[in-house]
Amino acid sequence: MDLEVSTDILMQDGDIVASTETQGQQSVSSTEMSFKAEPNDNEYAKAGPEPSRKLLGSPLKGGGLKRDTGMADWQPKSNQAIPRPPKFPPLPYASSQTGLVYDVRMRFHVETVSIEDDIHPEDPRRIHAIFESFVDAGLAWKKNTSGPSNDYYMGRIDARKVTKEEVCLVHTEEHWNWIQGLSAVPMEDLEELEQHPGTKMDSVYLSNMTPYCAALSAGGAIEACRAIMLGKVKNVFAVIRPPGHHAEREDAKGFCFFDNVSIATKVCQREFGERCRKILILDWDVHHGNGIQQANYDDPNVLYISLHLHERGRFYPEHSYRDRRGPYGDHLHCGDGAGLGRNVNIPWSKKGMGDADYVYAFQQVVMPIAIEFDPDLVIVAAGFDAAKGDMLGGCMVTPAGYAHMTHMLMSLAQGRVAVCLEGGYNLDSIARSATAVARTLMGEPPERLQELHPSITAVDDVKLVVRQQSRFWSSLYPKDISARLAGSLHGERMHDVVRRWQATTLWDEYEMSSLFVYKEQLSKSFENQVLATPNYTEARPLLVILHDPPEMIASPDPRTGKVELHNTWLTDIVKTYIDWAVKHDFAVIDVNLPTHVSDAEDNQIHQPEDSMEYRTREATQLLTYLWDNYIELNEATHVFLMGTNTGHGAIINFIKNNEERAQEQLTTAISFVKDVPLQSCRSATNDQFAQWYHASSLVFVEEDHNFFWLGDLTRKPKKRFGKVQKSPAGTISEMLIEHKEAVFNLLTAETADWRAARPHDEDEEMATARMPPVSNFAPSPRPGALPPLNPISMPPVGTFLSSNGTTARSLRGGSPLPPIGNFAPSPKPRSSRSPAR
Ligand SMILES: [Zn+2]
């Protein structure tokens, strides 16, 4: 919108100012009277076309209503057959009108000092842009212009000032007084107040007209809802400002002063009693409506559903009510007391949500819940800042998207839908979006949607809400299992159980035990994270495997969805590699990279995976730690690093951060890459680095991996990506199976020199001593050989279980001692490299 318009902000459409001002004075009272004179809206349904006729003389503006559906004016031509009068009266809903609240005086709230190229987003032109768009679309009629071009337009409803009593249904008396006081504060003091807001306000600008406009805005919302409940209109669009959904009980916040929608809610509940007991407030503003949530949090009769950008608490409003509790627009805030389960937050974790995402949320959460709640009135807190083109929101909802949401909501509460404007700061976007909503309210079907596929993020976000809300709504499945686990069941996360079991097995079969790793955070997931064979310090090849947790495959019960242990398989292909390596006299260090680190204060049943970036960073730190404290100090003749997914990232990061050390000591880096980007090794200072990496690597990449589609398929991958091999296998496990021979061959070939140089008898001796049992039922123990006689296998000495080696030693009697991480290897000088390399 150009700046020319803004110079005339206050006095645009002067005719409307005049008409509103003059008519407004009278019609406030006449509205009150005429609406109150007809408290029973049931007669509406009985009387058929009656309400329309009545509206002709009603205070509705926009020329009142033109749709007199009677036949009185109809004159048949003489040679025509006289048509029969309609058998039934016109449909009450279809023939009744959509209301419009718009009052130009709400534009008087402006910044005291406006800087031309830094106009505040909550710009008075917002409501004007919407109104003009309605007029241009032929939906609203501007008085004293050309007159209505057809008989299809919105009936004007006058805004009025809200009363103190009404405001105090939601806000404190102090808040009311504070706002009223602003009209008398000198300009300089208002500026001063804006500069130093204290706790009373946040992100608002003030003017002497603020109390007036805020009062009209709230009064407009009230009259919009009353007009519906009184049967004056079927539904309504209130083009009001300043917005309201951030205003808290005692504070002005986020451009908002009075919580318009909540005030209208409470007024309607009070005035219409049982007929308007249950109200659904649907808030599609891109921001969370903290004010509405606070005002209705314990009210069982107000269902508040908000779809908003949350960014895990980083998007406005990040802070809580006055006491600044944590971000409260998350999916865990479900209401309190009698209102528990009547607060539904659908927080988007990322920007960029579009039509398909919103429609998906409506289909999966909003509509099932709303239908079950069965409201008497629907109020939409309609911000249009999730609209495509709004820079503040960064989302992509189109006018058609808003129309579809409106259309779905119109199936509720017998169509009683009051749309009240909240945010939305791109004048063009809000005008187009609001017009699409208004057209839908009037009966036009929504335009077809262009975007039909919800994003993965949206699906994840919505599923999280479904899980959370499933305990309150019988239409939502699957049910949350927290309640069961919170009781006496004492559940434990399976990945910790599995890793403990792995540790036990690896101890039983290969005497692998835990290496101490220093961590600041305590977690079960770090116990047994690093397991090593007892010979890992010796002069022999060392294979370090950094892998994801084993896969669990289940065939759930088709009806209940329950996962039963007997229908669940654990696939741990990594063990095949360990087994091969141990049999071929390698030392092995096995590193488990948990996809989620179990928290001691684990009160959330479902946890998403930790992010790939976070996991890779953690894995890199861990590998560096292992290298510094264990690998570099030992006598290993060859060092092989093998990593799957996150492990691949960690290996490359390590190599890049330790160019020299890696080139000196690392024999080969083996990677299996599927769900992560393929990393490359390049050095700004060393031209040979990429060459070296290519010669010292083997990289299996899933054939559907982006890498192959982004690059030029006709050419070989660049050397810095390593010796890349395309893998036809679909999962990491399948890749590990598919390529195990290739890896074994490589390990054999690379260590051939060492094998050849080794004295034969040592070889023999080692083979006997190290032979692991083939399976649980396998070899009868030989004297002096493994496994230990004690049939009950003891767990390896956990990292945190034992802080002193003697405890562990006595547990296993005379059997060989596993090295206990921190106490084990005495540092050795770095120079002792094997000549065999
Ligand atoms: Zn907003």
UniProtKB/TrEMBL annotation:
Write the record's keywords in alphabetical order, separated by commas: Hydrolase
Q: Give the superkingdom in one word.
A: Eukaryota
User: Its Enzyme Commission number?
Assistant: 3.5.1.98
> What is the protein name for this chain?
Histone deacetylase hda1
Q: Kind of enzyme, top EC level?
A: hydrolase
